[in-house]
Amino acid sequence: SLKQIINNTIEITETVMISNGVFEHFDKNNKHHINNVINSVISTIEQDIGYTLELYVNNYHLNLIDAFGEEYSGINLATYLELGTKDKYEISLQNYGFSRSAASEINKNYRNTIIFDEHDQVISINKVFLLKYLKKGGLTYNEVYRL
Fold first, then answer.
1. What is the DSSP string of 22-76?
2. Residue 126 backbone dihedrals phi, psi, to 5 degrees
């Protein structure tokens, strides 16, 4: 899990970069140091692993299309890697403009407030109902409010 990766990284970290090229001995009790380690882990996962893997998978799918045609190439898994889910409704909500976490929360708890078309694309959202039941000031509340 992400928590395990972060905890393991904290355990083995000896130095931490506090600004451009300036390193300090890592102090587990220093919140600034901990935040730097967490940001580094997340950045590595998102950029180095996620982005690169997504590019390779997308390239592979494009090669399949060239070799066998669109009809016989299967699905492009790069979309799932990019959006972090394979749930068609969450993908639609993210394509509509919601963040990954807001799309997940709405999909799990408030899907009845969303109308999807026959291609699982968002047609309308009952904004009033969502705002009434979401925690005011929360991430999902703020995203729905800005619609």
1. EEEE--TT-HHHHHHHHHHHHHIIIIIIIIHHHHHHHHHHHHHHHHH-GGGS---
2. -85, 85
Reading the block at residue 127, the tokens are: 């904004």
Q: What is the pLDDT of residues 8-30, one digit of tens each?
A: 999 999 999 887 788 999 999 99
Query: What pTM, to 2 d.p., does this model score?
Result: 0.62
Dig out the tokens for 92 from the structure.
């639609």
Is 92 exposed, middle or buried (CB count within 10 Å of its CB: 0-12, 13-18, 19+)?
buried
Residue 73 CA: distances (Å) to CA of 62, 63, 64, 79, 127: 8, 9, 5, 15, 38
| CA distances in angstroms from 75 to 71, 72, 79, listed in the order given | 10, 9, 9
